[in-house]
Design a protein that fits this description.
The protein is α/β, with parallel strands linked by helices. The chain has helices at 68-83, 111-119, 129-142, 167-179, 195-204, 218-229, 334-357, 361-381, 387-397, 404-410, 413-427; strands spanning 4-6, 13-19, 23-24, 30-40, 53-60, 89-95, 99-107, 149-156, 183-189, 206-212, 232-243, 248-252, 258-260, 263-268, 271-272, 276-285, 291-304, 310-322.
Length: 437
């Protein structure tokens, strides 16, 4: 078994470190993996009621949204109106080439009036995504407070083709709004939106990204987002990772942490009730003498939404035994190895898309095929019947990665969106919001 190290059980978020090996050979440098598991439970006894919401909905009403897409968007918007309470704020902004505020940020006290306003939305022209997003931010900022959940929810089915269209500038705005206290979630509908942009915006805004193929999936996405917002247990989450005994944390798969002389740090999105986040940390270790050694220390900090946003800090130190001369390392631990390999696969999916975008289909296909082989070998050696491994193997097999002609012929916009979404979900430990096709 591997070494498991757990933080204070009395907190809303538990922190645990799992090492890939329990014993290392003496005097031999190398690498190992640590999986940091952050998990939240159900509502604790004595916890405060949920935080109030301040949600700014921003909807694409461009011409391509006409018909069924807009009908389902209206249905989803009215669902939000019905579900939020009198202590919550809600605003609705729509955009095509022009931007209009259907109703400004206000407490939801007269549902019928707001739903009538939703029904008045009609499709228009081009897609001024930046204008709609900035106006939605303005409405949300009007009622932005630190003791509530402040979120903008952007939905679009098209490419940003009016106003500001540069992805980095838009992501910069999303990051600036996050620093003011407003996070961002994005929803892409159909096959003609820019998934790279929506993922970039959601990650900069520390919200969620959703991909829906069919308009009738829109209401379930809104319901999923609302369910999360109504069950926030931790905000302002930061994680520091420090190597000990000469060990050095060198990477976190799927993340871009900030490094300094003492280690690395990264910020994470809000945590919801009954959620977990898994981070695969690569560690370089020196030649160590026999005995027990401290390998890694993590420090988790967050505002506890279940207890009046009190500041909480948890430290966990992972230790490892170094054996006598000639001993072999014990392990690897399957659960840790599985998390690492699935995280690697998510990273490779994005790298494969980058290669395909350059026209190098063969490199993109080969990278996915190598991942498929690695996962099958892991399944054969340790994980027979493991559902997560089997699901990922099935995803890759459906890409026809063994046949270059089939792969290059069948890889289209839908395949790209599927691959990017699978990678996003794995990196962020998100369950699918829709069944696979």
């Amino acid at each position: 078994m591997g070494c498991n190290h757990t933080g204070d059980h009395g907190n809303s978020v538990q922190a645990q470190v799992m090492l890939s090996h329990s014993v290392l050979p003496v005097g031999r440098p190398g690498k190992l993996w640590a999986v940091v598991r952050l998990s939240s439970g159900s509502v604790q006894q004595g916890a405060a009621e949920r935080l109030p919401l301040n949600v700014g909905v921003v909807l694409d009403r461009s011409g391509s949204m006409g018909g069924r897409p807009l009908d389902y968007v209206k249905q989803a918007a009215k669902f939000l109106v019905e579900q939020v309470g009198a202590n919550d704020f809600l605003s609705l902004t729509v955009f095509d080439s022009q931007v209009d505020v259907v109703f400004p940020a206000q407490r939801v006290t007269n549902n019928d009036v707001l739903k009538q306003a939703v029904d008045s939305i009609v499709p228009g022209g081009s897609t001024n995504l930046s204008g709609g997003l900035l106006r939605g931010y303005e409405e949300t900022l009007k009622e932005c407070r630190s003791d509530q959940v402040n979120r903008v929810l952007l939905l679009t089915d098209g490419m940003a083709n009016a106003g500001t269209v540069d992805p980095d500038m838009l992501a910069g705005k999303s990051g600036a709004m996050l620093r003011k206290g407003v996070s961002l979630s994005t929803v892409g509908v159909g096959l003609h939106f820019n998934e790279d942009l929506l993922i970039q915006l959601a990650e900069a805004g520390k919200g969620s990204y959703y991909y829906v193929r069919e308009p009738d999936e829109i209401p379930s996405v809104f319901a999923s987002e609302l369910q999360g917002l109504l069950s926030v247990v931790a905000q302002g989450i930061s994680l520091e990772v420090h190597g000990l005994s000469g060990c050095r944390a060198t990477a976190v798969l799927g993340y871009e942490p900030a490094f300094d002389d003492t280690g690395m740090s990264l910020s994470l999105p809000d945590m919801f009730r009954d959620e977990q986040k898994l981070l695969a940390v690569e560690i370089d270790h020196p030649a160590l003498a026999a005995g027990e050694h401290e390998i890694l220390r993590i420090r988790l900090s967050y505002a506890d939404a279940a207890h009046d946003l009190d500041s909480v800090s948890v430290e966990v130190t992972a230790r490892m035994t170094v054996g006598s001369a000639g001993d072999q390392p014990e392990g690897p631990v399957f659960e840790v190895l599985k998390i690492v390999e699935l995280a690697r696969t998510a990273v490779v999916k994005d790298q494969s898309i980058e290669a395909i975008d350059r026209g190098d289909f063969e490199s993109g296909r080969r990278a996915l095929e190598e991942r498929l082989t690695a996962l099958k070998e892991l399944q054969q050696a340790y994980g027979q019947g493991d559902p997560e491994l089997q699901e990922e193997i099935g995803n890759l097999e459906r890409m026809s990665v063994h046949d270059m002609d089939v792969f290059s012929t069948c890889f289209d916009s839908e395949s790209r969106k599927d691959l990017r979404y699978q990678s996003y979900q794995r990196r962020h430990n998100r369950p699918p919001n829709r069944p696979e096709k």
